[in-house]
Amino acid sequence: MSGSWTFSGGNTTVTGPDSLLLGTLTVSSSGTVSFEGSGPIVPGTLTVSGGTLGGPQNLVAGNLDWSGGTITNTGIWFGGGGFSSGSLYLDGGMLTNSGVLYWTNNATLYDGNGSVFTNLPGATIIVSNVYSGGSWLYGGDFPGSHVFGNGGTITVDATGTVMVYTENFVNAGTITINSGMLDFSEGTLMDSGPVKVAVGVPGGATLELGGADTFTAATSISGYGNLLVDRGTVAVNGTLGLSSDTWTFGGGTTTITGPDSVGFNLITVSGGTVNFNGSGIIAPICANGERGGAGRPAKSLGGEPGLERRDDYEHGNMVRRRWIQQRQSLFERGHVDQRWHALLDEQCHAV
Q1: What are the distances in angstroms from CA 225 to CA 89, 136, 326, 332?
Q2: What pTM was computed for the model?
């Protein structure tokens, strides 16, 4: 049987040896269907707007359009589509995306009970939600393990905060934040891929960390947005080259050990501990608070030759260029004492 299958009520179990092509497969309202046969079922479009889609049988869909209901099926492969509107429950299911997936309208994924979501290499997720205190990913809504893995590209084009709450997020692909804030402060992040933070709205985009977040030596964090850490434990072992307006550390413990050479406006430590233990030079115009670490606390203020970096970070101005030129002149003449500190104090009060 081919054509379109719709399950909008009752309980249906399909156990036959089925390998077939469908136009559409729809689960809606209070319908429950469990595919427990053999062979793949291949719908052009799989739509889940309510009810429950379950079973161990493989479903290979051209597109997955998900706007409500629960998925417990352990083998759904899809080539993109749309996740939109409201609460999406992945209760022990496994979803694998190989295409372009548009994540919109405040859709929140609640997962657990052994669930796995995978964004394959070459696949793309575009998150354009408008959140107001909600979560993009809500891990552990069901008991048991849960993993969200990215091997492709995730692009955040959001207004407000896109939160990853208590999710185990594994990134081996690329994350780009064009606007809004991507917040890992309540989740667990294991990152070995590049993270790019770009200015997309006034004030710039923001990467917020502070759960149990680890960036491996293969990671690079780059761009022109802002960095915020306000809790948890953060370890940056890769390259931190985020040339932003501000780096703010308000809580938790952050350790930066990668090869970092970057200039920006302001670094603030108002709580917690940040340890700069890597190589390279971090050169903010201003630094407030205290830093730790055996490697380079003085360098975070630019306190030695080699900090006379050109202002090539695309959001500077002539005042900042003149200030850096003055700083370079002082270094070249060997005057890094009272005049340097007076110059630093003058510029910081102007920021």
Answers
A1: 32, 20, 26, 31
A2: 0.82
